[in-house]
Amino acid sequence: MAIPTTTIEGKFLLPSGVGANGGKITARLSQNGTVEDDVTFEDHAVGGETVGSIGTDGTVSLVLIPNDEITPGGTYYLVTFELADGIRIREQWEVASAPDPVDVGAVTRVDAPVATPAFGPPLVDVLPAASSIYRGRFRTVRGDANEEDVTYQCLKGFDDVYRWIPAILGGGA
Amino acid sequence: MAVETTTIEGDVLDLDATPAEGEIRIRLNQAGRVPDGADSHVVGGELRVTIGPAGAVSFPLIPNDVITPAGTIYVVEYVLANGRRWREGWSVATAPDPIDIGAVTRIAL
Questions:
Q1: A3 reaches B (C-beta below 8 A)
Q2: CA angle at A104 for the pair A22 and A80, rounded to the nearest 5°
Q3: Contact residues, chain B, for A115 at CB < 8 Å
Q4: Could you read off the pLDDT of A64-92 as tens digits, one per residue?
Q5: Would you call A58 exposed, middle or buried from its count of C-beta atoms within 10 A (0-12, 13-18, 19+)?
Q6: Which residue did the predictor score with more confidence, A89 or A172?
Q7: How far apart are CA B1 and CA B22, in angstroms?
Q8: ipTM
Q9: Dihedral over alpha carbons B94, B50, B24, B61 (to 10 degrees)
């Protein structure tokens, strides 16, 4: 018997950047389905609930049948992180056959919230060093007296080097 | 590798300017994703920070500007031993680091 699976790994971090102190992850399918055995080609029913663990260092461990192997198409997982302190976080995932394993932070969220910041780019006095961390992000550098503020976006050039490029967001005075 | 953090430091004072006692509870307004080298982790849950002697605090936070989706904020609740509570919204940047707790950008909740 060889049922296709994808391993979810990585970490659940607290806002401090330290791993969460234990807990569990529960995953349910949005609807029951079937999956075909890669060896026997028999169809099996798939449903119910799978529980994975969050270690005391935040390490996530969960194995799921990828949604792209499940019939009917279009299923997704209803995932709940339940931390040791009782906090629960719910997400919806679409798990693919590849890559396997996949980082927990790289699993496709089908409930991914659209970023709608109620405020502009962070104000800084000096731009941080451009790097992949800031790819696509904006920063506004405060102008001194009688100088205008300037907004930059971090972009990767054709030479794979990251740079802060002045962004044209609107007209000046 | 390690995820980017910014250290929040300084003092928490009560209304009469005496050092506060209690704790600070910090949550993201929504769970996010944070890069760690080539890896990607989930960030969420609650951080509880005890306010130390003389009201001093010093703790790291993953800055909002490295969290996906963009536009997250921290919901910060001060819970003092004398029963006083209040909440603030914070947007923490990568720089400056460290940053005074009173200098963190406040966001209306």
A1: no
A2: 60
A3: 69-71
A4: 999 999 999 999 999 999 999 889 999 99
A5: buried
A6: A89
A7: 33
A8: 0.89
A9: 20
Return the SS3 of A150.
Answer: strand
CB contact under 8 A, B41 and A89: no
B66 interfacial to chain A (CB closer than 8 Å): yes
Q: Are A12 and B42 in contact (CB under 8 A)?
A: yes
B56 touches chain A (CB under 8 A): no
- Rounded to whole angstroms, how far apart are CA atoms B21 and B12? 8
Q: Which of B63, B91, B45, B77 lies closest to B5 in space, CA to CA? A: B63
Pairing of β A138-141 and β A123-124: parallel
CB A149, CB A127: distance < 8 Å: no
Phi–psi pair at B75, nearest 5 degrees: -100, 115
Would you say residue A171 has pLDDT above 50? Answer: no
Neighbours of B78 (CB within 10 A): 16
Residues 6+ away with beta carbon under 8 Å from A30: A75, A76, A77, A78, A92
- The answer to whether the CB of A121 falls within 8 A of the CB of A133 is no
Cis? peptide before A121, omega within 30° of 0: no
Q: How far is B33 from chain A (nearest CA, A)?
A: 6
Burial of residue A63 (CB within 10 Å: 0-12, 13-18, 19+) is middle
Does A86 lie at the interface with B, CB-CB under 8 angstroms?
no
How does pLDDT run across B43-55, given as a tens digit for each residue? 999 999 999 889 9
Q: Full-prediction pTM beyond 0.80?
A: no
- Asked if residues A134 and A155 have their Cβ atoms less than 8 Å apart, the reply is no
Is beta strand A88-94 parallel, antiparallel or unpaired with respect to A108-109? antiparallel
